[in-house]
Amino acid sequence: MNQMEIDYYKSYFELLPCYLTVHDRDYHIIDANRKFVREFGDYNDRYCYQVYKQRPEECEVCPVHRTFREEAPQQTEELLKTKDGKEVWVLVNTTPIFNEDGKIDAVMEMATDITETKLLQRKLRRNQEKYRVLFEEAPCFISIQDRDLKILEANRYHREAFGTSYGSKCYEVYKHRSTACLPCIVRDTFSDGEERTREEVVTSRNNKRMNVLVYTAPIRNSKGEIVKVVEMSADITTIRQLQDKLSSVGLLISSISHGIKGLLNGLDGGIYLVNSGLKKDDRKRINQGW
Predict the structure, then answer these.
(1) Do the domain assignments include residue 71?
(2) CA 37 vs CA 12, 14, 175: distances in Å
């Protein structure tokens, strides 16, 4: 390779938008591109772990070491620290550099900055955890069902009431029956994508009957296709029991009211007879009124 070709490839080495370094067997950095030098500073006579991570000893898991040992490229993710103390997540790819005798003289390491991707992943995980907590701790029965009415996922409240029933049919779990309910608002939601509400009576795993208000909504994929349905059920048993008691109280009040009305009518009639008897000096009428 002549000098012109060397300069040509060196220009590529310098201009690549990633951190490029070359390491010897003692983990010294023997060459680096300008982007690396700008971020991590001078590397002469320094070990890679001193420059990258500002630490005094070799890393426990070292892709350069593995490349020398296995004579094969390696890939890993690493957290580096720049000369200014800024932490940078990188995707590291290493490749062996062989001499004319087929032996490894050095290892080239290419590190691509993936800090923004890592931050987005962390944000996504935080959001997922937040929604997971909301799903788990919501004070109602929540389940995710597929087109076969199989329960794919359920929250804690649901599991406590109906048991861990993943893969079971909803009507087997809720109603302890062997056939689907008619009508079935989960199937209706799969059919037209509309949200639905219906009141049902279900039975827990302890054979406790509960009145529930059921709400269903579609879950769509990136193409807008309905792939699952979420079913949320609120326990309204106490409300229904209260309504029954209020109905009973209403009947009792109606009965008492009817009796009082009859008594008042009787008193009214008696007063009339007494008054008319007094006016006419009719002793018999007075006695009837009393």
Answers:
(1) yes
(2) 16, 10, 69
Amino acid at 101: D
CA distance 126 to 120: 10
Q: Is residue 269 part of a domain?
A: yes
**Is 170 inside a domain boundary?**
yes
Q: What is the pLDDT of residue 10?
A: 74
Instruction: Write out the residue range of the structural domain in which residue 78 sits.
Output: 3-114
Q: Are 235 and 140 in contact (CB under 8 A)?
A: yes
The span from the CA of 55 to the CA of 53, in Å, is 5
Q: Is 247 exposed, middle or buried (0-12, 13-18, 19+ CB in 10 A)?
A: exposed
Q: How many CB atoms lie within 10 A of CB 52?
A: 26
pLDDT at 2 over 60: no
What is the total count of domains within the chain?
A: 3
Q: Quick one: 231 and 246 in the same domain? A: no
Tell me the whole-structure pTM to 2 decimals.
Answer: 0.60
Q: Are residues 27 and 57 in the same domain?
A: yes
Cα dist from 281 to 74, 199, 270, 278, 288, whole Å: 125, 69, 16, 5, 13
pLDDT over 60 (residue 232): yes
